[in-house]
Design goal:
The protein is an alpha/beta fold. It has a single domain, classed as 5'-nuclease (Rossmann fold), CATH 3.40.50. The protein is built from 5 helices and 6 strands. Strands 3-4-2-1-5-6 form a 6-stranded mixed beta sheet, with helices on both faces. Helix 4 links the parallel strand 5 and strand 6. The longest helix has about 35 residues. It starts with a strand and ends with a helix.
Length: about 160
């Protein structure tokens, strides 16, 4: 089955990616925004929709509302609910559409998603995948720009 969506435990990934949002608290809005921006770029490079889940229960009132665009969705859990609960529910709901990939360092969560027919990745492996895909995308863009610049200069 084709991969239909990537389900990301946002805080798990932030904790596993210290280079991202250096000097900012892992639960800060700035760190979340940087992760969302980076995963939006990644989604643009690979084309698979991504949902990022954050634990939001018991958080201060200034925690943003759930957001979504066509390809990246950002969801915050409510009181009495965890991001893990939401990932499991999403993995179950997507079963009939194809395979999902859960990104988390929680072994029990990965096992649950795999039992539901999905696949799972540790944060470290996913970070390497994201960095590789973004580097390749940047190289492709540089090559395209160089080609277009040369083509333009030949016309003059």
């Amino acid at each position: 089955m084709a991969l239909v969506r990537i389900l990301v435990d946002g805080y798990s990934l932030l904790h596993g990616w210290p280079e991202l949002a250096r000097g900012k608290a892992r639960h800060s809005a700035a760190a979340r925004d940087e992760l969302i921006h980076l995963l939006t770029r990644y989604q643009d490079a690979i084309g698979t929709p991504i949902t990022i889940f954050f634990d939001g229960g018991g958080s201060p009132p200034d925690v943003p509302k759930n957001e979504a665009n066509h390809h990246v969705e950002v969801l915050f859990s409510k009181a009495g609910q965890t991001a893990d609960d939401m990932i499991e529910r999403a993995a179950h709901r997507f079963q009939s559409y194809g395979e999902v990939l859960a990104v988390t360092d929680d072994n029990a969560e990965r096992d649950t998603v795999i039992a539901l027919g999905g696949s799972a990745s540790s944060c470290l492996n996913f970070i390497a995948e994201v960095e590789g895909a973004l580097a390749a995308s940047d190289d492709d863009l540089k090559h395209y720009n160089r080609t277009e610049r040369n083509r333009f200069n030949r016309r003059r």
